[in-house]
Amino acid sequence: MTFNRSIAVPPTFTINPSVLASLDDLSLLARIIVEGFLEGLHRSPFLGYSTEFSAYRAYAPGDDLSLVDWKAWARTDKYYVKQFEDDTNLTCHIFLDTSASMDFGNGLFNKFYYGRLLAAVLAYLMTQQRDAPGLVLFSDTASAAVPPRAARFHADEIFLTLARLQAGGGTQIDTGLLSIVQSISRRGLAVVISDFFAPGDTACELLRHLHAQRQEVIAFQTLSPEELDFPFGGALLLEDSEMPIEKPVHADAFRARYLERLQAFCRGIKEQCTVLEMDYHLLRTDQPLELALIRYLEKRSTC
Amino acid sequence: MGLSFVNLAMLAGLAALAIPVLIHLLLKTRQRKLRFSTLRFFDILDKQSEKKRKIRHWLLLCLRLLILALLVFAFARPYLGGHSPASTRPKQLQAIFIIDRSASMLAKDREGQRWSRALSAMEKTIASLDHQTRVVLINCGHQADLLAGAASPADALKTLANLKPTEGVAQLRDGLRLAAKLAAGGSHYSNIIYIVTDLQRASCRDLQLQPLPENVAVVLLNFGDRQAPNLAITDIQLSHSAAKFSYVTVANFADEFSEPANLRVYIDGRQTHSVEIQPGAGEVKQVNFLLPGLAHGWHDVEARLEAADALTTDNRRWQTLFVPPPISVLVVEPRQGVKIFQEESFFVMAALDPAFGLSNAPLADFLLEKTAPENLVSKIAPTGGKPAYEAVLLPGLKRLPAGAPAALLAHVQAGGGLMIFINDAVSANHYNLELSQLLPAPLGTVETADDLDWRIWEWERKSPVFAPFNAPNSGNISLSRFTRRFSIPTSGAGVVLARFQDGMPALLERTIGKGRVLLFNSTSDTSWNDWPKHKTFVPWLHSAVRYLARRHEQLPNNAVTSIETGREMEISLGAEFHNKRLRLISPDGKQKELQADSHGLATGLEPVTPGIYSLRTPDGREIQRLAANFPLLESDLTAFTPAEFQRQIARTNSTSSAAQAGLFTDINDGRREIWRTLLLGGLLLMLVETIFGNRTAP
Questions:
Q1: Which residues lie below 8 Å from residue B590, measured CB to CB, with a gap of 6+?
Q2: Is residue B540 located within the same domain as residue B648?
Q3: Helix count (H) and strand count (E) of chain A?
Q4: Which residues have CB under 8 Å from B472's CB, separation 6+?
Q5: What percent of chain A clears pLDDT 90, i.e. is strictly above it?
Q6: Measured between beta carbons, which residues in chain A are less than 8 angstroms from residue B29?
Q7: Pairing verdict, β B601-605 and B505-512
Q8: What does the H/E/C string look like for A52-66?
Q9: For FRET with B42, which of A177, A197, B49, B432 sits at 20 to 30 Å CA-CA?
């Protein structure tokens, strides 16, 4: 594997061949059928001559004789032609939030670090399946850092980009990012890795635009244990990571109310995803990543 | 009313108020700067909570300062009103002595007499007390009272100098009750209770019923010996009857054989009996003797035991005996010139005085005289308004002498008694005619029992005539058989006292004037019945004659003749003595005036020394003679061990009832201390602080 060496491997996430092999067993079968350039594992809405049987139809002049089912002719004395589903390639855009709010969390539980690893894993997984992963980065500016390609070594390019990333800036979901979304012409998969701490309702705006572009969206809301549990005590002077704001807070007195509001926020994101028929998953950065992925993939496969 | 302090210096403790302030400042939470991903969830709410938190913290600080200030003030013991602080002083010692003055303290043990040793120990203890100590002496006799209320040690010693044990019993519980009250009342004193006793069991009963306050020290000054050998005369029972023994009871309270002791009995100062006895361990020995013939009137009987035991006081015991004058009875004998056993009055004479006619006969209860019918009238003529004889027994007479009915009526009306028997010679018409004013009922015809003899089946059990048969196993009247009788209607002027089984009256009574008439429906000999041959005949005849003579209710029969020393007594003397002044003469010759109340009850008898007491009218007539004896309870010198005694002393949970009453304020010398209030307030605020503090975030 050509994983960039600048990304250290945390104990919670051991991305090694064995883990990837275990992921290999779980086929990432996209629910939507997209057009693709290359034949692959993914089912195509167009019938073709693939390995998976679809249906019989009566023989018509001009059909390939090799497709005639002679056993069926022997039973019924009629000519039938087998039809097979066509497998296509999947275009997958990985939207990674690189704003300053993602750069929160202690050491290996840092959200930005965790998000990069998750993006790398997904990119590698897709490359192994001959899909076309692409990487879109967004903070106060947005850029299509790596366009999707179904190349064998395309993951290396994504790894290189991820390795060079620095978090910073605010989370701005504005015309820059939305124009990138609107430029996606093919139906495919979009994975959003973010804490969704964007001003106002703009985080949902991104999801709505992706839905409008006929993308099957998987939203990974990544939060650190410090955010989810708020284990601080005493009086704190909190400094916002994206804006120059400070607030005095008494942790013990406000913990309950904070957690309540955070959960309401997460619940809002989840509800929005449900409305848009998207998959939502909350990831704690202290959870083993492969476990989260396996649970996600299992759920995905049953849909 | 100003506020002052007992311990003013304790107010310096207010400087400690700086401690919570310092702690508050030192532990004041300082803000820690923290970079957080987003502050979108920290809005207005936290500003409110921060403000509330600060207010709560200031309130907590104030609360803690208040608690500390209250505690400091409580220790400074503030009070309202009263005297200047100079009058306050450390707790003064109050020594309470409960002195067991029971008679057992007179006992002599190996170390000497108990009382002497107790006195010596008390004197030493009091002499060692500080001169400012308050000494209370509680006398524990038959009731507890104060010998010295709040005396100085010197005064207490003077009181002790003349103190001696009583001849009565004591209950230490009463002394403890009084001591507990005094200790409770003097809560500003430091109390110590000295219990001076020989731990005799009789004196230490139910001690646990009187608990002592916990803050009172108890010191036991024990002078008892657990096993003191002691012999005692515990009882004298006298019977003037020649057929019944009198006896003296001697008890050995030791758990070993006593030394041989000589018991002597003195009657009216003359020794009449002497016997050597040696009772075994715990044995109660009864020494019987017969009283000699005594003239009527009061007699003193004293029993003395010459023994070398622990307690000599109980080796003497007294008893008094009243010998009533004999009842004069006139018996009419109609059969003259026959042998004595052929006389009709033979059985009644023999029953009333078996030794009648003998020259050396002892004094009997009845003074009999036998006479012929013709002498009846002259014999019974009343003299001076009083009957010549207290009772007349009249057997059946064929003809009543001339003037006899009137003479008999006069005799009965004057207060004499008449008992009429009947026989075959009696003419019913003649009797009904001549004795109509005397007979309880007219006589009918003579009846003879055919197959079945008559028996007395019912009798008036409340009547004194049949009183001897009320006790169990005292004889059965119904065993006697009656073969002939007169039919007697029950509609006469008399009252039926006994009936045969068919309801026919057997004995009738009629009251006429001051006297009584009894009609016995049978003969006085055995011709019509066999009652004289039965054992119930004699007691019945005695009680019947006594009833006729009105002697059954005579004073000595029911009167109290023995009392205990050291105990207040009252004696019922009857209506004759109501509101009368009386004199009580002690064994030492001292006289004491008494007054009987409107019911004839003489009160105020409290014999101090054992012996014979005489109760007289102001003109010197002796009404009753009383024997005052050493209390029986004190003779048993068995004692508790100090450990057993200690286990019986119960303690109350609180310091005293007075302390409970003064839980919030302690009023003393006109000042009102409020430290308890402050302390309670402090404790309540501590509780509030605990709850409030736990609900406030740091």
A1: none
A2: no
A3: 9, 10
A4: none
A5: 15
A6: 234-235, 250
A7: unpaired
A8: EEEEEEECCCCCCHH
A9: A177
Average pLDDT over residues B75-96: 67
**Pair B402, B501 in one domain:** yes
ipTM rounded to 2 decimals: 0.73
- Average pLDDT over all residues of chain B: 84
Residue B39: list chain A partners with CB under 8 A.
238, 240, 243, 245, 247
Looking at the partner chain, which of A242, A249, A265 has a beta carbon nearest the beta carbon of B42?
Answer: A249
Question: Other C-beta atoms within 10 Å of B65: how many?
Answer: 18
My answer on whether B500 and B528 are in the same domain is yes
CA distance A46 to A64: 18
pLDDT tens track for B602-631: 887 888 888 999 988 888 888 888 899 988
Domain-by-domain residue ranges, chain A?
17-33+90-302, 42-88
Superfamily grouping for domain A17-33+90-302? von Willebrand factor, type A domain (3.40.50.410)
| Contact assignment for A238 to B39 by CB distance below 8 Å | yes
Q: How many CB atoms lie within 10 A of CB B43?
A: 11
Interface test with B, best of A102, A194, A241, A250 (most B CBs within 10 A): A250
Residue type, B369: E
- CATH code of the domain containing B136: 3.40.50.410
A interface mutation test: which of B28, B36, B48 has the most A CBs within 10 A?
B36
B32 closest CB neighbour out of A237, A240, A262:
A237
Question: Both B385 and B510 in a single domain?
Answer: yes
Average pLDDT over residues B628-645: 86
| B305 lies in the same domain as B389 | no
Contact predicate B393/B329, CB 8 Å: yes
Half-sphere exposure of B456 (CA within 13 A, CB side): 26
Question: Which pTM was predicted?
Answer: 0.50
**pLDDT of B84 strictly over 60:** no
Give the whole-number percent of chain A exceeding pLDDT 70.
75
Where is pLDDT greater, at B330 or A11?
B330
Q: Is the distance from CB of B650 to CB of B210 less than 8 angstroms?
A: yes
- The parent domain of residue B600 ranges over 555-629
- pLDDT score of B87: 47
What's B574's domain CATH number?
2.60.40.10
Query: Is residue A297 predicted with pLDDT exceeding 80?
Result: no
Coil vs helix vs strand at B594: strand
Q: Which of A238, A241, A260, A265 to mutate to test binding with chain B, by most B CBs within 10 Å of its CB?
A: A238
pLDDT in tens, A95-116: 999 999 999 988 778 899 888 8
Nearest CA in chain A to B38: A240
